[in-house]
Amino acid sequence: MAYETTGEATTVEVAGGDAQTSEGRAAGHEALEKGAGAELTRERVLAVCQSNWEYRGIDDASMREMLEELTTHLDEAAAAGRTPQDVVGPDAKAFAAAWARARTPLLQRVLRMAALIPFVLGSLLLLTHVFDRSTSLAIEAPRVAFYVALAAAIVAWEMRRGSLGFRGWTVAGLVALPVAVITALLIGDEPLFHLPLWGTLLFLAPGLPYTVVDIRARNNAPGKG
């Protein structure tokens, strides 16, 4: 991992050249001047990168791997008498963003959401099966409207913010509930069809691999036994 300033542009190399971005030399000098009184520390670089990657929706397993790799480079730089700024350059956020774009292209992020949204909906349906103690659920128009609005809110939040989190779930729920209530008032709550338990389980299937990977990453995170 290296940070080089040439006569024309500033180039960030991540993990042996996996990602490269260029910025104007003037912008690099401006960032250096702004950060002159607040030198980047190892802890701050890691915190900035982790926050940026969470914002951009990097999955937990990839984030853990990236943080471990970055930590290794920072430690090696410190042992050689170099500063964290020598590794990531004057703008840690730009460095993190460049690595994130290279690590998780838009298509991969869209595919992840396309798998996890049915998983979330399937989880809600499965809970309803359990609470109702039934192998078949009556699906009414308000329920359909709720799930559609919830999925739309999740996608919009993910695309804009990059990471859902508790706040994102709260916003999605607040958006979906009024939609369900209005649908019930306009259309009613007569069952449209019945969903068997095996149909609910099919909703869970696409998101299971992502969920397993994320759980393992959390369990293997530093500070957990």
Automatic annotation (TrEMBL):
Q: Where is the composition biased (Low complexity)?
A: 1-17
Does this entry carry the keyword tRNA processing?
no
Signal peptide position in this chain?
Answer: none
Keyword Transmembrane recorded: yes
Looking at the UniProt entry, the stretches that span the membrane are: 110-131, 137-157, 169-187, 193-213
Question: Keyword annotations for this protein?
Answer: Membrane, Transmembrane, Transmembrane helix
- Top-rank taxon, per record: Bacteria
- Residue ranges for the region (Disordered) are 1-30
Protein name, UniProt field: Uncharacterized protein
**Species of provenance:** Streptomyces longispororuber
